[in-house]
Design a protein that fits this description.
Oligomer: single chain
Order of helices and strands: EHEEHEHEHEHEEHEEHEHH
Bound molecules: NADP nicotinamide-adenine-dinucleotide phosphate
Structural class: alpha/beta
Strand content: 15-25%
Length: 271
């Protein structure tokens, strides 16, 4: 669906960024500030205001404080998310945004939301995130509000967190056949800010990292960069969702538009 005929979200508007304290959101906020206007940042925790930044507290999971957060915000950039329950959080936001008459709702989703099937209990346990991102996308699409959704591949920061967790073990079980296309969160933030300053555009082309690499290679890169050695042991994950991931349903090789590589990220992050 394309709703590009809606009026553009002019510069200088008050913009609400949900999740403006998170990995992606905190990189979106300064980019919107540079474009002018006040940026309101929704968080569950109380924050100090700063020049042009208006913190508001609220919880999208319960809906508490969300009406006040969206009041007067023409544009809403929805970056809040967690491994579970994004559909509920998004529904609460959509309902409040509809009541407030928001002009543009911008959503960040994940590549593969529509291609990784979450059917069985096993799928849900391991890949329920994709199902909840798809349901959240639908809440945005069906809201009746002018919208834009960008799907991105996994951020470097997420792969780093996974690598740090996995390499705590002396022997690392690595899902066989899994590949990833890590992308720089700053590059995604720049694209999201650009989209939120433009007209509502519906589902826009995916944003993928520069290279698709086997998970085992990404882990080896991390081990090298952090000066450690571990034995990697392939394990085959069951279920339809895992099969789809092995087939690359969460990848966008034709949209490898990100520039910063995993190696560049590791060199900077781990020194
Ligand atoms: N990470 C990835 O690889 C990746 C890839 C593609 C798409 N995405 C999507 O990008 C978005 C941002 O991801 P991220 O990695 O930046 O996440 P993150 O670092 O974990 O940050 C999550 C943000 O969501 C906010 N939040 C969580 N639960 C909330 C609630 N109940 N009410 C209000 N705010 C809440 C948090 O705010 P407070 O803690 O301050 O309340 C925080 O600012 C998510 O929608 C995610 O699905 C992520």
């Amino acid at each position: 669906m394309d709703n590009a005929m809606e009026p553009p979200a002019g510069r200088g508007d008050r913009v609400l960024v949900t999740g403006g304290t998170g990995t992606l959101g905190h990189l979106v906020v300064p980019r919107l500030r540079e474009a002018g206007g006040t940026v309101r940042v929704l968080s569950r925790h109380l924050r100090e205001p700063s020049e042009g930044i208006e913190p508001v507290t609220g919880d999208l999971a319960t809906g508490e404080g969300v009406d006040a957060a969206v009041a007067g915000a023409g544009v809403i950039v929805h970056c809040a998310g967690s491994p579970k329950g994004d559909e509920v959080k998004t529904r609460h936001l959509v309902e409040a945004a509809t009541r407030a008459g928001a002009r543009h709702l911008v959503y960040i989703s994940v590549v593969g939301a529509d291609r990784v099937p979450v059917a069985s209990a096993i799928d849900r346990a391991m890949f329920g995130y994709f199902g909840s991102k798809l349901a959240a996308e639908r809440a945005v699409t069906d809201s009746g509000l002018p919208w834009t959704t960008l799907r991105a591949t996994q951020f470097h920061d997420l792969i780093l967190m996974v690598a740090q967790q996995m390499t705590k073990l002396p022997v690392i079980p690595v899902p066989a056949g899994f590949r990833f296309q890590p992308v720089d969160a700053g590059e995604v933030a720049a694209r999201l800010a650009e989209l939120s300053l433009g007209p509502p555009s519906g589902l826009v082309p995916d944003f993928g990292g520069p290279r698709v690499e086997p998970l085992a290679e990404l882990l080896r890169g991390y081990l090298r960069a952090s000066g450690r050695r571990r034995l990697l042991v392939p394990v085959r994950l069951p279920g339809r969702a895992a099969r789809a991931v092995r087939a690359g349903a969460h990848l966008a090789p034709e949209r490898a538009v990100g520039r910063r590589t995993w190696e560049d990220f590791l060199a900077e992050r781990l020194g």
